[in-house]
TrEMBL record:
Pathway: Carotenoid biosynthesis. Keywords: Carotenoid biosynthesis, Oxidoreductase. One of its GO terms (biological process) is carotenoid biosynthetic process. This is Phytoene desaturase. It holds the Pfam family Amino_oxidase. Residues 11-479 form the Amine oxidase domain. NCBIfam families: crtI_fam, hydcarot_desat_CrtD.
Length: 488
């Protein structure tokens, strides 16, 4: 049997392990942490449970596909429900809307509460599915680095539609053209943050994202987001994949232009191929430091990072759903702070994710588990202690204004995750959530391929390589990578 060595047990590392095991390889995974999942893990503090990182789950069939590879019925191992309300939105002027998953209800809500013609919401989602239909097969499901991708019939069809795919305007421009109410522009601009980008810079092509949330659907795993990695981890173990925790890989061993193994601690482990799930930038700095560096790719601007307060709140707010957004009054200035000034605006958009709404045992009775997050710049050596202290005050006073409460007195437990700790816990360069940003139209072409062009038998998966960050794309990176491996 050929042996694959995988570095990192993030979602893409686990998915890669499964896909290679399904192909009949012997698979060993080496993970620096004491637990699997990377960014997709969980924390527990005094009766409160929080999903540590990702909170939004789309495209569940990609997880299910991994169970089916082994002839399993996914529902027996991993359960999830579709959300009826994708998100609750709040503004400072007292306006509130619910983004219903049902398009008709959402359009009516927007029309009655914000005076925006419901037809514009429909148009936005049609635009989104048009982009998805033309670009997903090309950019999400295939390697961009293989000639065949560019000559297949799907690619030729997409070339003809180039003008309509939003490549030449920004997301904000396209949304301003469509909507009359600035609140709708803001709501649809927010989708840029789903991959850590800036709506005022990123091409309108990223208007593809609402298609995932509305046309395909937003979901919640019944046991929390953490169950995505946990259920896949259990599956991998049951299929004979070996996991080594507390095993930080120090080097990928290369001989005569071929990856032949890895070095972890004082051990050298040999294999037939190596798959790297560690962030690509940090991998070249550390475990590939002796190899030729793809300088241009390494220098690409990174996506934004996040500041999260995990708060145990001793009160139930009935107006809050699983996903809640309290919008900034000046979105453009908020993003110029994140992407141009490298700082945090005093009036940030606040995202509150509360799993206890759907999973009551995540918080004690009469309480809620608030994962309270704002988008922040990636780590460029800012004075984070000061920025975090200021942001905490600003977030609390924003919540107090909008929800008419005294939040400080309700916070029972607190834990913080921020750019520096995101990097130290998962090796993510500059604490970026999604690898490179998509702030320019060439970004898709400037991600690292799923294989090394100079070292044979070395492959890459995860949010920092093609096709990009986020759970769905990280899972696809594993699929694209595994399709490149032949057993000959
Ligand atoms: P990672 O999760 O980055 O894991 C990499 C693993 O490699 C880690 O376990 C690390 O310890 C290990 N490793 C690194 N170096 C070594 C080494 N030398 N030796 C051994 N092991 C090593 N995505 C969504 O889809 N929806 C969301 O709502 C969402 N929200 C997010 C919120 C936050 C706060 C964060 C941090 C991320 C969010 N994301 C979201 C992004 C998503 O979490 C990532 O894109 C995805 O989890 C990346 O997975 P990955 O496989 O690339 O690896």
């Amino acid at each position: 049997k050929k042996k694959a060595l995988i570095i990192g047990s993030g979602i893409a590392g686990i998915a890669s392990a499964l896909r290679l095991a399904a192909k009949g390889l012997e698979v060993e995974v080496f993970e620096a942490n004491s637990y699997p999942g990377g960014k997709l893990s969980e924390i527990e503090i005094k009766g409160y449970r929080f999903d540590a990182g990702p909170s939004l789950f789309t495209l569940p069939e990609q997880v299910e596909e991994l169970f089916r590879l082994f002839g399993k019925i996914p529902e027996d191992y991993f359960e999830y429900t579709q959300l009826e309300v994708a998100c609750n939105y709040f503004w400072e002027d007292g306006k509130r809307i619910q983004a219903f998953a049902d398009l008709g209800r959402f359009a009516d809500e927007v029309e009655s509460k914000l005076g925006e013609p419901g037809g514009n919401v429909r148009k936005a989602l049609q635009r989104s599915s048009f982009i998805y239909e033309h670009l997903a097969p090309l950019f999400m499901h295939r390697s961009l680095h293989k000639f065949g991708t560019w000559t297949n019939p799907q690619a030729l069809k997409s070339y003809l539609k180039m003008g309509k795919l939003g490549i030449f305007s920004t997301m904000n421009q396209a949304n301003e053209e469509l909507f009359s109410n600035p609140k709708l522009v803001q709501l649809f601009n927010r989708y840029a943050t789903y991959n850590g980008s800036d709506p005022y810079q990123t091409p309108a092509t990223l208007n593809i994202i609402p298609h995932l949330e509305f046309n395909i659907g937003a979901y919640f795993p019944k046991k929390g987001m953490h169950d995505i990695t946990q259920s896949l981890f259990r599956l991998a173990k049951s299929q004979g994949v070996t996991f080594h925790f507390n095993s930080k890989v120090e080097e990928i061993l290369v001989e005569n232009g071929k990856a032949v193994g890895i070095k972890a601690g004082d051990q050298e482990i040999m294999g037939d191929l190596v798959v790297n799930n560690m962030d690509m930038v940090n991998a070249y700095k550390t475990i590939l430091r002796k190899q030729k560096q793809p300088k241009k790719l390494l220098e690409q601007p990174k996506s934004s990072s996040a500041l999260i307060f995990y708060w145990g709140i001793k009160k139930v707010f009935p107006e809050l759903e699983l996903h809640n957004i309290l919008f900034s009054e000046d979105y453009r200035t908020e993003f110029s702070h994140i992407f141009k000034k490298g700082s945090i605006y005093y009036d940030p958009t606040v995202y509150i994710n509360i799993t206890s709404v759907h999973k009551p045992d995540d918080a004690p009775e009469g309480c809620m588990n608030w994962f309270t997050m704002i988008n922040v710049p990636n780590n460029q050596g800012q004075d984070w202690d000061q920025l975090i202290a200021e942001a905490r005050k600003n977030i609390i006073s924003k919540v107090n204004r909008i929800l008419n409460t005294d939040l400080e007195s309700l916070i029972e437990v607190e834990e913080i995750l921020e750019p520096r700790t995101i990097e130290s816990k998962t090796s993510s360069a500059q604490g970026a959530l999604y690898g490179n940003s998509s702030n320019n139209r060439f970004a898709a072409f400037l991600r690292h391929a799923n294989y090394s062009s100079s070292i044979k038998n070395l492959y890459f998966c995860g949010g920092s390589v093609h096709p990009g960050g986020g759970i769905p794309l990280s899972l696809l990176s594993a699929k694209i990578m595994s399709e490149m491996i032949s057993l000959q």
